[in-house]
Specification:
The complex is a heterodimer of chains A (258) and B (297). Chain A has 258 residues and is of the alpha/beta class. In chain A, 38% of the residues lie in helices and 25% in strands. In chain A, strands 6-7-8-3-9-10 form a six-stranded mixed beta sheet, sandwiched between helices. In chain A, helix 4 packs across helix 5 (124-137) and helix 5 crosses helix 6. In chain B, the strands form three sheets. In chain B, strands 1-9-8-5-4-2-3 form a seven-stranded mixed beta sheet. Chain B has seven helices and twelve strands. Chain B has 297 residues and is of the alpha/beta class. Chain B has helices at residues 12-27, 48-57, 75-87, 136-144, 149-162, 191-194, 267-275, and strands at 33-34, 63-68, 91-92, 101-105, 118-122, 173-175, 179-181, 200-205, 210-214, 220-222, 249-253, 260-264. The chains are: A alpha/beta (258), B alpha/beta (297). Chain A binds chain B through residues 80-81, 84, 103, 106-107, 109-110, 113-114, 117-120, 122-125, 127-128, 145-146, and chain B through 132, 141, 145, 147, 149-150, 152-154, 156-157, 159-161, 225-228.
Chain lengths: 258, 297
């Protein structure tokens, strides 16, 4: 890991009117690092993620991103065209529900190809080869290239969404409960796949989850959130094996043992 | 003549409003300008947008031609032509070369247009991105930021499913290197004619209440892929009446035993050729051919 952080978040706060979304969140993310954000429902995880990924304008605080040229940019101060360009080229978002991230009316190949075409690819053969290459990497057979995503199982849709996000080689990926709604065996395969891809591509990832097993498997570092604030953070194993805050202790001890 | 209506049906304030929209549209080629479309005495989908544009630009010195699918003698074309003959007292014609204003549905005349002519298209769906993106707020933003990647997704799907770009009408174009535009449901055969056309092209969508324009000599490029370049339709045969091989042909079923013929969709072009002595497989001999037109009478 290099010395300079890729993403630097300072005192990020978001209010929904009088209701608190998240408050005073600060952290740094280094290139190639996977940061997990855990906490119960309503603890502000998704609010934080939407503020980071420009889906929401935060009420206060700063999100600084080091772009490919090495310059630090304040992403919320960028003009909307630059923000959207950043989302297309450098960043990616994997939604909890694949239907939010996919275009359900066009084929799997076109779904992956769309990201390529959005950044200027205009050679059909290359686009299709790129799409099939990525389908292969997320373990979807070539002969499903021209099928609509609605004919796919939930796990396949989620893998398709991941392929679509990663095809343009983003540097930073936000994932919101990527394994939510999948059964346990499919979850395991998806996690295995994700772990491989993240390591191969050297991606930086911010992953929001309420599933501690997912966090344990993927994340290098963890932040635990409760009532909109970060109550504990540190290396994943450290936080999960030796939780300090009473809430974290409760969270860790409440994991079902089979 | 006293029809009880203002000249050219619409009141003067409405015409001024439409002319302002036209000026803005001409200033920003391919950009869809909203306008307060009026109720017209014909149903949406029959040319309410085109007829409002024509009413706003037409004057007593103009000569009007109206075509529907290329033909001057179909119901819609005849009705609109008579409408303006009565309300605007303009001369009407079926000859492309004589017309100053041409209102069209789904075709561009085969005879090349010249400077000083206006071509007015009737447009059902003005938004080329609508097929991919249902939200109007989002499509406007995509136009503003020139985010046109999704237009190619539709073409990609065509190639993936049919092996070639199967979109054959309303084929998306890029105007003046800036705005992606729906050329109304003209066949893609006509797309190359829009490029650097000497005549002014106006587009009116009555139901959607949008006006857009392509000024004379403006670049109009059809979208395509590097390895699947834009192509127009071709036919194996020639027009059965005039023998033309360079025009857009309609297929006409002639009996219930599989009989069919191909004829020019542009009735004026076909008539001119026959009058000049060209004869196709099933056409009357040149000596027997009599050109009958309704508009000039």
């Amino acid at each position: 890991m290099s010395a300079a952080p890729m993403l630097s978040v300072k005192d990020l706060t978001h209010w929904y009117g009088a209701r608190l979304g998240c408050r005073d969140v600060s952290f740094d993310l280094w290139p190639g690092e996977v940061l997990g954000i855990v906490g119960e429902s309503g603890s502000g995880k998704s609010t934080l993620l939407s503020c980071l990924s420009c889906a929401n304008q935060p009420s206060g605080g700063q999100v600084l991103y080091r772009d490919r040229t090495g310059a630090m940019v304040d992403v919320h101060a960028l003009s909307e065209p630059r923000q959207r360009l950043l989302m297309r080229s450098d960043w990616g978002v994997v939604h909890q529900n694949p239907r939010d991230g996919l275009r359900m009316g066009v084929s799997a190949g076109a779904n992956i190809g769309e990201r390529l075409m959005a950044v200027g690819a205009r050679h059909y053969g290359d686009i299709r080869t790129g799409a099939q290459d990525w389908l292969g990497r997320v373990e979807i057979a070539d002969d499903r290239t021209d099928d609509l995503p609605r004919t796919f199982s939930g796990g396949m849709q989620q893998r398709l969404q991941i392929a679509r996000t990663l095809v343009t080689h983003p540097r930073l990926v936000f994932m919101d409960e990527p394994t939510g709604g999948l059964d346990v065996s499919v979850q395991a395969r998806l996690l295995d796949l994700l772990r491989g891809l993240v390591a191969d591509l050297g991606l930086s990832v911010i992953i929001v989850t309420h599933d501690l097993a997912v966090a344990r498997l993927l994340a290098h570092r963890l932040m635990v959130m409760k009532d909109g604030t970060v109550i504990e953070s540190g290396l994943t194993d450290q936080v999960l094996d030796d939780p300090h805050h009473p809430y974290t202790q409760l969270l860790v001890s409440s994991v079902l043992q089979v | 003549m006293d029809t009880g209506y203002n000249y050219a049906y619409l009141d003067e304030q409405t015409k001024r409003m439409i002319r302002r929209a036209i000026l803005k549209a001409v200033a920003i080629p391919g950009y869809q300008v909203p306008f307060a479309g009026r109720e017209m005495p014909l149903p949406y989908g029959w040319g309410t947008g085109g007829i409002q544009l024509t009413a706003a630009v037409i004057g007593p010195d103009d000569t009007l031609k109206v075509i529907d699918q290329g033909a001057d003698d179909t119901t819609n074309a005849v009705s609109i032509r008579r409408f303006f003959a009565r309300t605007a007292a303009v001369a009407t014609t079926e000859k492309t070369t004589e017309a100053t204003v041409i209102q069209t549905r789904h075709r561009i005349p085969e005879t090349p247009l010249r400077e000083g002519q206006m071509l007015i298209y009737q447009v059902p769906i003005p938004e080329p991105l609508r097929w991919m993106e249902p939200r109007e707020t989002e499509t406007r933003k995509m136009h503003a930021l020139q985010e046109y990647g999704v237009m190619h997704v539709k073409l990609y799907e065509d190639i993936a499913h049919y092996g070639r770009i199967a979109t054959s009408y309303n084929y998306p174009v890029l105007v003046n290197g800036r705005y992606v535009m729906a050329p109304s449901p003209i066949p893609k055969f006509d797309n190359p004619k829009m490029d650097r056309m000497p005549a002014l092209q106006l587009f009116g969508a009555g139901r959607e209440k949008r006006i857009y324009a392509v000024p004379p000599y403006t670049r109009v490029e059809s979208l395509d892929f590097d390895d699947h370049p834009f192509e127009v339709q071709t036919w194996d045969g020639a027009c059965a009446l005039c023998g033309a091989t360079d025009s857009y042909l309609d297929e006409v079923v002639t009996d219930d035993a599989g009989g069919r013929m191909f004829v020019c969709s542009d009735s004026d072009y076909c008539g001119d050729r026959r009058a000049a002595g060209h004869v196709g497989d099933q056409g009357a001999t040149a000596a027997d051919y009599v050109r009958v037109t309704e508009a000039g009478q």
